[in-house]
Amino acid sequence: MHPAIHPRVAQLDLSYVLTRLVEEGMSAEEAAEAVDQHRKLLTIALANPGVPVAPSEMMDRAIHAHVAHTRLWREQCADLTDGGHIDHDPTVVPGMPELADGWAVTCAEMRARFGLDLAGAAATCVLQALPATCVLTAAPATCVLRVVHA
Questions:
Q1: Taking a C-beta distance cutoff of 8 angstroms, is the pair 92, 126 a contact?
Q2: Strand (E) positions, the chain?
């Protein structure tokens, strides 16, 4: 794993993502590369809070596999952002300035942090790391809800 990957990102268990990518038809080597690039993109998102970053198609496939396990995505993103979240916005499409801007950030950061040139790749959507907007305090349960069918 590249030493510039954020320590919290490096510690994520992404075995589910790897397995899902292989199940979706990627070779084991392609899936491993997609997960590696996904870790790099998460690192860039964390280093640029509030700034949209745009993944390549390979990164986006890993993101979609990660997001598909909603609990895992939600919990891991909350851990990475100290209670915040990382939004995935697939409605940002080619031709929109936000996509071009996010892709410029991704390309520059990939080159500067990881020595990775994304020439020839294209952005597909945007990710944005956002800080927590409130503090949650765990408290003991005060009731139990139960679904009762008549």
A1: yes
A2: 85-89, 126-130
- Dig out the tokens for 16 from the structure: 């589910």
- Tell me the pLDDT tens digit for each residue of 102-123: 888 989 999 999 998 887 776 6
The reply to whether 65 falls in a domain is yes
126 lies in which domain range?
7-130
Q: Please, are residues 28 and 22 in contact by the beta-carbon 8 Å criterion?
A: yes
Residue numbers of the chain with a pLDDT score lower than 70? 122-150
Answer yes or no: is 149 within a domain: no
**Which residue bears the tokens 């998102």?**
45
Q: Is residue 141 part of a domain?
A: no
Question: Given phi > 0 = left and psi -120 to 50 = alpha, else beta, which region is 148?
Answer: beta
> Can you give the pLDDT at residue 108?
93
> Do the domain assignments include residue 145?
no
Confidence (pTM): 0.81
Domains held by the chain: number: 1
